[in-house]
Amino acid sequence: MTATAHFTGDANPYGGGDPYADYRTEDLPFTHLVDLADRRLGAGVIAANDEFFAERENLLKPEPAHFDPERFGHKGKIMDGWETRRRRGAGASEPHPTDEDHDWALIRLGAPGIVRGLVVDTAHFRGNYPQAVSVEAVSLPGSPSPEELLAPDVKWTTLVPRTAVGGHAANGFTVDCERRFTHLRLNQHPDGGVARLRVYGEVAPDPAWLTALGTFDVVALENGGRVEDASDRFYSPATNTIQPGRSHKMDDGWETRRRRDRGNDWIHYHLVEEADIRAVEIDTAYLKGNAAGWARLTAREAETGEWAEFLPRTRLQPDTNHRFVLPEAVRADQVRIDIFPDGGISRLRLFGTLTERGAARLTARHAQGL
After folding, report:
1. Positive or negative, the Cα torsion across 235, 239, 240, 242?
2. 101 vs 164: CA distance, rounded Å
3. CB neighbours (10 Å) of residue 73?
4. Is the pTM here over 0.85, yes or no?
């Protein structure tokens, strides 16, 4: 675990103007990965011991925390985050909480996976953030209840030991633990508020579930697909193209800046494993004056390592879901979409089945807790 220790400490009181003007952050090496705690993947904050001032569900909102200096309720200042009441000691002779006293929240990841990094964001919590945080993780099958997760026989793994954090800052932690997890426990020591929690990593799907599905989207985030690289992420991330469901607005897809050269934009994907692709969807929903003009798909076959075109350059229509049934299955472990010349798409779906070799490798990784 590596923390951004220089963020430790108080932030200045809010002095008016842009509340993010003095927000402390930095480029972190893992934020290009999928947020395993994304609500769009089905993540949720399923329990917390206290949420007196602000609800636990705020932790996983996808947008940055909002601050309204004039907004108060009958309990006090209304904050866009999870905030607990002030802890007190046992009595007048011992007014302070003990060293072990802390608040906690249980988070169900939207997709099980290997955690590579965490951001405990205390945006706008300047004098009411926790002194320290810690994060634990566990992997349990099915849909365990809070009571089952908190049972004494459940063994939690520490991802972030108790570490001092700073107020009004994106406190980042690099995680080095090669194990698959399904749930996290975020602890505040002793109390306070956290605006957002981001859990960056790699999806590790259940091979039994994918086998039962038979044909499924082999590039979807929730099934273990991922973006390896993209030519441009100016307006929105390429990872949006493999999020669950259809896009609901323009920035819920992938859009590039306007090109002023003779090149084109592209995204390079890794499939969950080697698969036989039989059908494709390229959706340009909500991209009307800025949809890609044409698209082409190429695939890399795992055994030979060679790339081959399987959907030639094809005209795309704005705000339209395009479907293609392939004349024969395309075996691949990586796929690249090229769009011409620029613009964007909202979703890419590659429907297929795992090959025998791909299924065996996925099952072996799952058996190792990966």
Report:
1. positive
2. 15
3. 9
4. yes
